[in-house]
Amino acid sequence: MSSLYVVSDIHGYAQDLRDSLGEAGLVDGEDRWTGGDRLLYVLGDLMDRGPDGIGALRLVRSLQRQAPEQVHVLMGNHEALALGYKLFPQSRFGQVWQPNGGHASDQDALTDDDVEWLRQLPVMARVDEFLLMHSDANDYLEWGGSVEEINATVTSLLTGGDDGEALWEVFASLTARYDFTGPDGQRAAHDMLNALGGECIVHGHSIIGSLLNKPSDQVEGAIAYADGLVVAIDGGRYDGGPLLLVQLS
Ligand SMILES: [Mn+2]
User: Fold this and answer.
1) Quick one: which of 75, 98, 136, 187 is 20 to 30 A from 227 by CA?
2) What range(s) does the Calcineurin-like phosphoesterase domain occupy (predicted)?
């Protein structure tokens, strides 16, 4: 089994991503993949809020081209948002894009090829015992009863070519959060793992500081909760916390 690394919610901090990957030996100083057969999953939210969203997208796309079997990217709500604003700027996406940290410099630089790439991103993956996703939400189950079916449903929704309503629904579902906390959280996590397989949900999206109720600058690493069924990896970089690259295996 290859070692598995995860990182999430880059939010435009492309240099932090580069530095973290470099420290782990996954890339060299010229953005070349040096990770061999190790696996890297980026759990969404490359763009918005921070300084260089397009730089983060360019870096992960380059690594994916160099090592397509090793480097994987899941869709976060900000990928759906970027796509929605690009394709349907006059729709509701036009009202929520900027308040959610959208930058014109990122949007202007998106190519047609980037749009097609964003459109076909999977929303979930299972790697050995780990069930990987962007959001700490059980809305994913509304799209199907297996990881493959859920990804296929979302892809078909995003390639339907309508007025943006289907894309809006995907975006809205991906903004849900905190389904694995509180008195019912452990059961929700257990039900999701039962339905989709795996022993541990790994997510970004909801920053660890908000889950621990402490400032992001005091966050030091990923946390396990819901009796160990769930791991949160978003250190809250845009909120003054660390960008965490976490080795799961
Ligand atoms: Mn998110």
Assistant:
1) 75
2) 4-206
Q: Which two tokens stand for residue 5?
A: 């690394």
Picking from 73, 221, 43, 72, the residue whose alpha carbon sits closest to that of residue 135 is: 43
CA 175 to ligand 1 center in whole angstroms = 6
Identity of the residue numbered 235: G
* Residue-wise pLDDT tens digits, 104-129: 999 999 999 999 999 999 999 999 99
Nearest 10 degrees: CA dihedral of 221, 224, 225, 230? 120
Q: 131 pairs with which residues across the strands?
A: 126, 201
Compute, in angstroms, the gap from residue 12 CA to the centroid of ligand 1: 13
Quote the CATH superfamily of domain 4-247: Metallo-dependent phosphatases (3.60.21.10)
Token pair 């402490």 in the structure block, residue: 214
* Cα 31 to ligand 1 centroid, rounded to whole Å: 25
The structure's pTM equals 0.97
Q: What is the pLDDT of residue 1?
A: 74
Measured in Å, residue 194 CA sits from the centre of ligand 1 at 24
The strand order across the sheet containing 130-133 reads 124-127, 130-133, 200-203, 230-232, 223-225
| Cα-to-centroid distance, 135 and ligand 1 (Å) | 6
**Following DSSP, what letter does each residue of 190-249 receive, concatenated?**
HHHHHHH--SEEEE-SS-HHHHHTS-GGG--S-EEETTTTEEE----GGGT-PPPPEE--
Question: Which residue, chain included where needed, has tokens 């690394």?
Answer: 5
Q: Could you say which residues of the chain have pLDDT below 70?
A: 161
Any idea where the domains of the chain sit in the sequence? 4-247
